[in-house]
Amino acid sequence: MSTTASTVPGTGASDRAGASRRSGTFYRGDPGMWSWVLHRITGVLTFFFLFVHVLDTALVRVSPNAYDEIIETYKSPIVNLLEVALVGAVLYHALNGIRVILVDFWSKGPKYQRPMLWSIIGIWVVVMIPGTYFMLERTVSDLFGGGN
Question: Is 48 exposed, middle or buried (0-12, 13-18, 19+ CB in 10 A)?
Fold first, then answer.
């Protein structure tokens, strides 16, 4: 007796599963799937940032001069853009984490998971627009004039 699902029509196999296998993917771009993917990516990026941050901070005890040189490189416009991306990643990861907790532990969570997803995206945009402005204000001023 086979434990795999049959793809023969009429044997109870899902048409969607069969179509997904034929097209090469099980995912069709549902917002919930992208939310899951983005949550994993932002978690990994945050982990690597924390890892690098611990290493560069530990460098102050080994070589204060090397530490000062590395901190000076952090003042570049490219790093400033990376800081904005980091804040965006951490904010999304935190908001989506709250949504995941609500879906898992609130009895009505699964019913409201899609509206909660759109709500966290809205909150993310509302927070990131002014946050990006204030984080990039000095860099834009330095690059395009107007800086002191």
Answer: exposed
Confidence of residue 7 (pLDDT cuts 50, 70, 90): low
Q: CB of 74 within 8 A of CB of 57?
A: no
> pTM to 2 decimals?
0.74
Per-residue pLDDT reduced to its tens digit, 21-61: 555 666 667 788 889 999 999 999 999 999 999 998 999 99
Asked if residues 67 and 56 have their Cβ atoms less than 8 Å apart, the reply is yes
- Rounded alpha-carbon distances, angstroms, from residue 54 to 1, 26, 67, 81, 114: 55, 39, 12, 20, 36
Structure tokens at 59: 């460098």
